[in-house]
Amino acid sequence: MTADHQPDTALPGPVHLLRPDQPLCACGNEDAPFRGELRTVRVPPGAVRDERVWRCAECHRQHRAELAAAQWAGMPAANWLAGVAGPGKHDVVIAWGSKPEQPELLPCGVRWHAVRMAGHIGKPVLDRLLSDGASVGPVLRAGRTGALYWLLPVEVDARARWAQLPVRLLTSSSYLAAPSPDSHAHEPAGWVHWPEVTGTLTSPELLATAIERELYAGASR
Ligand SMILES: [Zn+2]
Questions:
Q1: For residue 171, how far is its CA from the centre of ligand 1 (angstroms)?
Q2: How far is the CA of 8 from the centre of ligand 1 (A)?
Q3: Ligand 1 midpoint to CA 24 (Å)
């Protein structure tokens, strides 16, 4: 359609003003297609009502990640990390028990994806996210190259998300050589961040946005 054929009407206002029943996400996003749990809200005077929580796509993903993390919260970090090794997980935990700094090969794409990026990009991104108080999952630094490896939830469309950024996605058929979470060594690799709550993974959306911001800032410096 060319501009000549545009109907001569005013632009519609925000959707929720036109349709007061349109669910809104708590973050303010008007596109909130995901049904959440029931919550009880106060309705003056002195009454309560149960209503459905609605979430936008990103808040829905974040909520599911938090639920997934909650089930691991009480587990020792080494057991959680080794858990992806299947029947070999006990061997990994035992090996780390005697040599925590010794990397063990862990398969990617089982419980997490790993995204690798150069240290000069990853370090400022990590500093920024932590100073913003963001929820950040494990981040491993390779001693020799300085590259950072971020653990993220497994996503079906992960390749598409990372294709445009200077990072490498490690998923099924890739392995991460990781020391124990209890290791304080920097060589041959060391954890530069380990989350307080076991099972926490970095939001891919958050990380991709932070990398784009860092690249943009770097280009304009
Ligand atoms: Zn939202």
A1: 27
A2: 33
A3: 8
Ligand 1 mean position to 63 CA, how many Å?
10
For residue 150, being part of any structural domain is answered with yes
Q: pLDDT band at residue 21, thresholds of 50, 70 and 90? A: low
Does 66 fall in a domain?
no
The answer to the question of residue 67 being in a domain is no
For residue 146, how far is its CA from the centre of ligand 1 (angstroms)? 35
Q: Coil, strand, or helix at residue 219? A: helix
pTM of the entire structure?
A: 0.74
Cβ neighbour number for residue 121 with a 10 Å cutoff: 19
Range of 43's domain? 10-55
> Among 3, 2, 55, which residue's Cα sits nearest to residue 24?
55
φ, ψ for residue 40 (rounded to 5)? -100, 125
Q: Is residue 130 a part of any domain in this protein?
A: yes
